[in-house]
Every structure is written in C-alpha cells, then in structure tokens.
C-alpha cells in the first residue's frame, strides 16, 4: 500500500519534531505552531529530500513554511 | 589502533606544509583522509602514497576551495568512498602580501576567496552530512595575525580575522547538532609560506617569540588532532594560538 504524500510528510514531521499527529494540519507552520527552530526546518527539508528522493534547492526550501507548503511542493515536484 | 580509527577526514590544502602534516598525523592515528590540493598533484599523490604504505586509507582530490561546484564534488566523493565525513580541516590558504596602499584589487580578492570564502564553502558543503550524523568536527586554520594585525598583510589579516568570526558563528549555529567548530591560529611555522621570508626578517621575528624559535607543522597538527579528539568534546567556538607565546 502506497501512502499519500500527506501521510508521509506527517510521519517525517512527527518523527523529527516529536509533535502529536493531530497537530500536523496543512495550515500548521513548522516554526509558529510546531515548535521548530530554523535549523529544524533545514533538517525537515533534508528529510523530505530523503523520503521523496528528490532535491529541494535553497530557494525553494525557503518557501516551505507550513505542512501544506511542503505537501503541495512535493506533489508538484514528484508529479503526484 | 588509534584514536581516529573508523573516522573520516577531509583536509584542504593537504599537498604541502601544515595541511600535509595534518593529513599524515590523522592517518597515522587511524583516520581515512581526503588529501585535497589545487595545483600540486604530484605532492598530493605522494602524501596519499605515504599514508597507504603505512597501511592507511586516503585519496587525493583536486578542488579549488573557492569554487562551490568543485567543493561539492569533493564532499560527495568523500561520502561515496568513505560513507561519512567526521572531520573537516579547513587549511588551504595563500598569501599575496603588499602594503595597503600598493595592494591590488585582485590580490585582495584572491586571498579573500581562498582563505575566507573557501572556509565558508567547505563548511557549508559538509554541514548537511554532519547534521545527519548528529556529529562532526571542524577545525579552521586562522593565524595570530588575524588577532593582532600585521603590516603588509591587509588582505590576509582580514581573511583570517574573518575565519575567527566565522568559526564562532558556525559553532553557535551547529552546536545543537553536536558539531564542534574551532580554529587554530599558528604564529610563525616553518613551511613554504614562511621560507619566503628573508634572514633579517626572520631574526626580527624571533625576537618577538617568547619561546625563541619558529614552530613546526607538527606543533600545529598536534593541536588540530587534539581538537578533533574525544578530549576536546566540550570545546567549541575557540581559537587556540600555537605561536610560541607571541600573542597572549
Ligand atoms: N606557515 C605559517 O607560518 C602559518 C602561520 C599562520 C597561519 N598559517 C595558515 O596555515 C595554513 C597552511 O599554511 P602553510 O604554511 O602550510 O601553506 P603552504 O605550505 O603554502 O601550503 C598551502 C596549501 O594550500 C593549498 N591551496 C592553495 N590554494 C588552494 C585552493 N584554492 N584550493 C585548495 N587548496 C589550495 C596548497 O595546495 P597546492 O600546492 O596544490 O596549490 C597547499 O597544499 C594556511 O591557511 C595558512 O594561512 C600558516
């Protein structure tokens, strides 16, 4: 069973930030709502790269602030 | 059996001088080493040969530290061959001395590009890997002149002072990920870089060194090795002068 992009993003966020799954909503901001510091966000992006086997440039990474940003960016990038 | 068994290191500017001695030292204590160079291929290969014949592991890699693409290729190759990068020693450096009034723009630019931007690029290129590892050590070669200034070396001193500031900032940014960043500031060490000095200049220099002699590359390498070792696990953001007491 293939899980959806949202499910996989949620898992990465839960594992990395130690937050509850229920908090990981599309509108949730990594820094404002999920308690990430700027270095955590850099690491999250690295883990998204690993999880989805893609490269996210520094410029693109700067635009990823919320769970929804990550999901839509990745969907577009990996063509789902 | 050495204290760096299973560890992997990238040493920039390891074909000659201090970098060469650092590479040999780390390898002799068990580390696998990337011997970076820019022009001296034969000398770099000789360093690799020396490490291998002593039973160690190493390869040479040509990369200009001021070129982001070449730096990235080198770090990618290090990870590919060794599987990790535990240590980065930012040692590559040049001098283009001149009085400020006579200093040409390209003398300024070349020194800043290699001695300061090079440290930034190499550091940036390994942080991703070190963050993943949740461990890493970076040692930057500064210079005591970066602390006290030196007539005729505006470019070099600015770059080395920059390295000290960069060391502190990198140390703060990466501390939470268990990446320790320190600098070693040599005084006058006998290498190609200081062999260019005239006898008179050397005499004058000696009178400013309390210990009364020039240092050796081994003196610097020993301090670098200390900062990479377990004994230094509570030290970050520091600059250690290895200068016979010149600057206190
Ligand atoms: N010697 C001293 O008294 C002294 C004092 C204070 C600080 N330091 C610092 O210690 C470090 C080493 O000095 P050293 O005396 O050993 O110098 P050195 O004998 O002149 O050797 C310099 C090394 O840097 C490499 N290099 C130069 N430009 C490069 C580039 N663009 N990319 C990659 N590698 C490059 C050279 O490689 P190639 O030959 O292949 O070009 C060589 O291996 C420098 O950062 C220097 O500023 C030295």
UniProtKB/TrEMBL annotation, chain A:
<dbReference type="GO" id="GO:0000036">
    <property type="term" value="F:acyl carrier activity"/>
</dbReference>
<keyword id="KW-0963">Cytoplasm</keyword>
<keyword id="KW-0444">Lipid biosynthesis</keyword>
<dbReference type="GO" id="GO:0031177">
    <property type="term" value="F:phosphopantetheine binding"/>
</dbReference>
<dbReference type="GO" id="GO:0005829">
    <property type="term" value="C:cytosol"/>
</dbReference>
<keyword id="KW-0597">Phosphoprotein</keyword>
<dbReference type="InterPro" id="IPR003231">
    <property type="entry name" value="ACP"/>
</dbReference>
<dbReference type="InterPro" id="IPR020806">
    <property type="entry name" value="PKS_PP-bd"/>
</dbReference>
<feature type="domain" description="Carrier">
    <location>
        <begin position="3"/>
        <end position="78"/>
    </location>
</feature>
<dbReference type="InterPro" id="IPR036736">
    <property type="entry name" value="ACP-like_sf"/>
</dbReference>
<keyword id="KW-0276">Fatty acid metabolism</keyword>
<comment type="similarity">
    <text>Belongs to the acyl carrier protein (ACP) family.</text>
</comment>
<dbReference type="GO" id="GO:0000035">
    <property type="term" value="F:acyl binding"/>
</dbReference>
<protein>
    <recommendedName>
        <fullName>Acyl carrier protein</fullName>
    </recommendedName>
</protein>
<dbReference type="Pfam" id="PF00550">
    <property type="entry name" value="PP-binding"/>
</dbReference>
<feature type="modified residue" description="O-(pantetheine 4'-phosphoryl)serine">
    <location>
        <position position="38"/>
    </location>
</feature>
<comment type="function">
    <text>Carrier of the growing fatty acid chain in fatty acid biosynthesis.</text>
</comment>
<comment type="pathway">
    <text>Lipid metabolism; fatty acid biosynthesis.</text>
</comment>
<dbReference type="InterPro" id="IPR009081">
    <property type="entry name" value="PP-bd_ACP"/>
</dbReference>
<dbReference type="GO" id="GO:0009245">
    <property type="term" value="P:lipid A biosynthetic process"/>
</dbReference>
<keyword id="KW-0275">Fatty acid biosynthesis</keyword>
<keyword id="KW-0596">Phosphopantetheine</keyword>
TrEMBL record, chain B:
<comment type="similarity">
    <text>Belongs to the short-chain dehydrogenases/reductases (SDR) family.</text>
</comment>
<comment type="pathway">
    <text>Lipid metabolism; fatty acid biosynthesis.</text>
</comment>
<dbReference type="InterPro" id="IPR020904">
    <property type="entry name" value="Sc_DH/Rdtase_CS"/>
</dbReference>
<keyword id="KW-0521">NADP</keyword>
<feature type="binding site">
    <location>
        <begin position="156"/>
        <end position="160"/>
    </location>
    <ligand>
        <name>NADP(+)</name>
    </ligand>
</feature>
<dbReference type="InterPro" id="IPR002347">
    <property type="entry name" value="SDR_fam"/>
</dbReference>
<dbReference type="Pfam" id="PF13561">
    <property type="entry name" value="adh_short_C2"/>
</dbReference>
<keyword id="KW-0443">Lipid metabolism</keyword>
<keyword id="KW-0560">Oxidoreductase</keyword>
<keyword id="KW-0276">Fatty acid metabolism</keyword>
<comment type="subunit">
    <text>Homotetramer.</text>
</comment>
<dbReference type="InterPro" id="IPR011284">
    <property type="entry name" value="3oxo_ACP_reduc"/>
</dbReference>
<dbReference type="InterPro" id="IPR057326">
    <property type="entry name" value="KR_dom"/>
</dbReference>
<feature type="binding site">
    <location>
        <position position="189"/>
    </location>
    <ligand>
        <name>NADP(+)</name>
    </ligand>
</feature>
<feature type="active site" description="Proton acceptor">
    <location>
        <position position="156"/>
    </location>
</feature>
<feature type="binding site">
    <location>
        <begin position="64"/>
        <end position="65"/>
    </location>
    <ligand>
        <name>NADP(+)</name>
    </ligand>
</feature>
<feature type="binding site">
    <location>
        <position position="91"/>
    </location>
    <ligand>
        <name>NADP(+)</name>
    </ligand>
</feature>
<keyword id="KW-0275">Fatty acid biosynthesis</keyword>
<dbReference type="GO" id="GO:0051287">
    <property type="term" value="F:NAD binding"/>
</dbReference>
<comment type="function">
    <text>Catalyzes the NADPH-dependent reduction of beta-ketoacyl-ACP substrates to beta-hydroxyacyl-ACP products, the first reductive step in the elongation cycle of fatty acid biosynthesis.</text>
</comment>
<keyword id="KW-0444">Lipid biosynthesis</keyword>
<dbReference type="InterPro" id="IPR050259">
    <property type="entry name" value="SDR"/>
</dbReference>
